[in-house]
Amino acid sequence: MGRPRQKAPRRSFGAIRKLPSGRYQARYPGTDGILRPAPETYETKKDAGVFLAQMQADQSRGDWLDPTAGEVLFSEYAKRWIDERGIAPTTEELYRRLLRLHLGPTFGHQYVNVISPAKVRTWRAERLEATGKTQVAKAYRLLKAIMGTAVDDDLIRRNPCRIRGAGKEEADERPVASVEQVFAVAEAIGIRWRLMVLLGAFASMRPEELAELRRKDIASDGSAIRIRRAAPELNVGRRVIGDPKSRAGKREIAIPEFMRRDLLRHLDWFAEAGAEGLVFVGERGAKLRGTTFGRKWRKARDQVGLPEGFRFYDLRHTGNTIAADTGAKMKDLMVRAGHSSERAQLIYQHSTRKHQRKLAGDIDADVRRQWAEAEAEAAEHAGSGGAIIHPFVPRVRDATGDPVTQEA
């Protein structure tokens, strides 16, 4: 008699069975105890055993992911992701627009765990053909951030957004106006909005900072402005009052001397009364609206011959360039413009009020020098009989309609 046939030892992890097709199916318990089938069947029992060994090793290392955890629609996960960020209203508006226009149509109906690198590459290629590179870069960065959180949430093992440089924006260099052009557009836009143009250029203030500027934020002699709050305008026309764009946005700006008369006169003529009074309001006392001011800005811009693509925000770029041309330290420029950079904070020296006053003085001297050069050139072309209007004395009338006379 032969020896009795011994049974194979009972498998300690998972189970393998032979299907009617002849292939082998592996099943394994998750960390929750639920038995799950392998995502595919195997030609040999050995191959199925290798899969079970991998699953057991992953669980022992803590690397195992529940394959069903990522079965959540991308549209639902992305909306929840935005809701949980606690981001600024303008950023939230941008994210929801990118989701609606660029990400949702392709990924919205797909589960998070089926979005693969190949699908991301195909989506990006199609969007690049359909729209501008800048919008695609923004949408890609948003997709990468959302999927990065999905990795943290153990919904997927790796982020499928792996295209090198895909989130980098290569925007065109913004135009810079000359000092003469800044004064020309300030004159053309009218006395009520003249100061807004000058502050945008020579104080490097953002539009949303100008919209929320109040009397209490301005030194009594017009020598400085404190930026405490900002009121960015959403696409729907609603302004959202809050902190400036970054922590560095809360700052004190020293005002060049040539602007102080404009600043104090504007407070007397146009600003709302009281410490909380807004500095810039419309002709009928209404709060500043981007659409209304935008029409005035474009008309003045076109009138003086600035490029069609020159935005009001480009005045800030102009001011930053003028300030940099004075030879100021990087840290002083960052403080004045309200920029923040951890690397720069470590590298560059601290900017004191003394440095900021010196920077304002340098801007004052540089603006006066450039205007003197423009005056001399204009006089040379106009001849001895030509009249030159000084940029610091706008052609205005007071509330009674009488001419305002000021020394040049």
TrEMBL record:
The keyword Ribosomal protein does not apply. PROSITE patterns: CB, TYR_RECOMBINASE. Residues 72-151 form the Core-binding (CB) domain. The keyword Protease does not apply. Residues 172-361 form the Tyr recombinase domain. Belongs to the 'phage' integrase family. This is Prophage phiRv2 integrase. The lineage of its organism: Bacteria, Bacillati, Actinomycetota, Actinomycetes, Kitasatosporales.
